[in-house]
Amino acid sequence: SSQQSQISQGSIEDLVNKSIIKILSDNFTLRSFKKSDILQGAKVKGRASKTIMDEIKKKLFQIYGLRIEESNNKYILVNPKNKILEHFKSTNPGQLLLGIVLTLIVHNNDEITFDEIKSFFVAMSVETERDDSYFGNIKKLLHEFEQQLYLEKIIKPLPSQASQIIYKWGLRSKQEVNKKDLIPIVGMMYSMTPEDLPPP
């Protein structure tokens, strides 16, 4: 449709990310919301808005295992946000990635550099420079976790070399994640290659 061709793939992606942040941060997790609530100000109609809603649904499920149900032009999130991170045992790659990063942070005096995250995944034969067959684009996911306040990113300038990127638990993780929920992940990570992990 002409409407859709006016919207580039990049701006669709941008809109999808903003909408997901809005859904999660505006606590639409227990009450219903309309399409206009999350596509506020975006000049999209008809097929384009359907494309965007489909992408939002797909991504929410891929990253958080959350489903959106529709009824009479209203939407609800089926799994309230305080339940999102209960089951890190899930086979959801995005959730598992977040769990691993949060666990690495816990086991590294509450902060970890991007390079340390990278070397952990490289040791696991996980692709960090391009899309990994299981996790997808790790840099992009880290960026999304940061936007959704699961991670806090600190950029530390270093003399005579590139700045260091440091991650800590973000506000949302502190509110929503019980460290007990990370236990299965710790077990899994240690059984894979214990020597690659920072000491507890």
What do you see in this structure?
The chain has two domains: 2-78, Arc Repressor Mutant, subunit A (Orthogonal Bundle); 93-190, Arc Repressor Mutant, subunit A (Orthogonal Bundle). The strands form two sheets. Strands 1-3-2 form a three-stranded antiparallel beta sheet. A three-stranded antiparallel beta sheet has the order 4-6-5. The chain contains nine helices and six strands. The longest helix has 19 residues, at 46-64. It has 200 residues and is α+β, with helices and mostly antiparallel strands. It has helices at residues 2-5, 9-25, 35-38, 46-64, 93-106, 114-123, 138-147, 171-176, 183-192; strands at 33-34, 68-71, 74-77, 112-113, 151-158, 161-169. The model is unreliable at 1-5, 80-87 and 193-200 (pLDDT under 50). A hairpin with a 2-residue loop joins strand 2 (68-71) and strand 3 (74-77). The N and C termini lie far apart (55 Å).
Give short descriptive properties of this protein.
200 residues, 3-stranded antiparallel beta sheet, Arc Repressor Mutant, subunit A, alpha+beta, disordered C terminus
